[in-house]
């Protein structure tokens, strides 16, 4: 009787171990699936649902997952979505070499007319955009560009990282062609990569979260029209303390 009980117990323990192992494997697979599903496509099909246009009179259309902004009259224009806090943002962008563009992150709109921090005698209008902007811009007149560098739009109006116009970094950007950007915002640290080359890496405590915005910069009268297009636009929000390169 004792031998039979021992056999039954052994079989039960083995079955439990198998079930536990299967359950653990399923949980691991589930976690892997969850991680792979964390990416959210921000430009899908032919719909701009979830996006809002603010600023000037540039126009935005989407076709086959490609968002194209075309210059128009008025001030800088932004196609916005969010807010987002800690995240990895990736996109491919192609910008007319004569156009200055960028992508806002953790950005905001003024709730009321507000003196600009860097120049208090300039009054920023209600609704104007301010915050971190990752530049998309080729060099002008033989100068190095500033693609991947960060400008504090509408507020401190200055560069936030110390690699501005660095020749070895700007060689990564291909004017007029598709370029891949990767932006990592985590805590007070913000980084950018252009075609796999690290560009900006700085810390700043001003904004913990805010919207992202695709910029079409204002242009001079009787110039243009110019376009800038984005595709493969996706975002993955980061968990607290998550390691990311």
Report on this structure.
This protein is of the alpha+beta class. The chain folds into two domains: 1-37; 41-237, Jelly Rolls (Sandwich). 16% of the residues lie in helices and 42% in strands. Strands 1, 3, 4, 6, 12, 13, 14 and 16 form an eight-stranded antiparallel β-sheet that branches. A hairpin with a 2-residue loop joins strand 12 and strand 13 (189-194). It is globular and about 45 Å long. The chain starts with a helix and ends in an 8-residue tail after the last strand. Mean pLDDT is 87; it is low at 1-36.
Quote the CATH topology of the largest domain.
Jelly Rolls
Number of separate strands: 16
SSE topology string: HEEEEEEEEEEEHEEEEE
Give the percentage of residues in beta strands: 35-45%
Unreliable runs: 1-36
Could you give me the name of the CATH homologous superfamily of the largest domain?
Exo-inulinase, domain 1
Structural class: alpha+beta
Number of domains: 2
- How helical, in percent, are the residues? 10-25%
**Which descriptor suits the 3D outline?**
globular
List the helices and strands and how they pair.
Elements: H1 2-36, E1 40-41, E2 52-55, E3 59-63, E4 66-70, E5 77-84, E6 87-95, E7 101-109, E8 114-116, E9 119-124, E10 129-136, E11 150-153, H2 167-170, E12 179-186, E13 189-194, E14 197-203, E15 210-216, E16 227-237
Antiparallel strand pairs: 1-16, 2-5, 3-4, 4-16, 5-15, 6-12, 6-16, 7-10, 7-15, 8-9, 10-11, 12-13, 13-14
What is shown here, in short?
By secondary structure, this protein is an alpha+beta fold.
Features:
single chain; 245 residues; alpha+beta; Jelly Rolls; 8-stranded antiparallel sheet; 16 strands; 16% helix; 42% strand
């Amino acid at each position: 009787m004792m031998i039979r009980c021992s056999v039954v117990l052994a079989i039960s323990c083995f079955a439990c171990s198998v079930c536990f192992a299967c359950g653990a494997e399923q949980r691991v697979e589930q976690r892997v699936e969850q991680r792979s599903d964390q990416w959210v496509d921000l430009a899908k099909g032919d719909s701009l649902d979830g996006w809002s246009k603010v600023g000037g009179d540039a126009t935005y259309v989407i076709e086959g997952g490609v968002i194209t902004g075309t210059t128009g009259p008025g001030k800088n224009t932004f196609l916005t979505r969010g807010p987002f806090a800690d995240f990895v943002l990736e996109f491919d962008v192609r910008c007319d070499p004569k156009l200055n563009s960028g992508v806002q992150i953790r950005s905001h709109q003024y709730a009321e007319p507000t003196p600009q921090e860097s120049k208090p005698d300039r009054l920023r209008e209600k609704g104007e955009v301010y915050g971190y902007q990752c530049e998309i811009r080729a060099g002008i007149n033989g100068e190095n560009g500033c693609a991947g560098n960060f400008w504090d739009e509408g507020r401190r109006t200055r560069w936030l990282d110390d690699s501005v116009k660095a020749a070895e970094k700007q060689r990564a950007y291909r004017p007029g062609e598709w370029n891949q950007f990767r932006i990592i915002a985590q805590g007070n640290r913000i980084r950018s990569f252009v075609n796999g080359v690290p560009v900006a890496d700085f810390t700043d405590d001003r904004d913990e979260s805010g919207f992202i915005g695709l910029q079409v910069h204002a242009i001079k009268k009787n110039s243009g029209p110019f376009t800038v297009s984005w595709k493969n636009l996706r975002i993955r929000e980061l968990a607290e303390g998550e390691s990311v390169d």
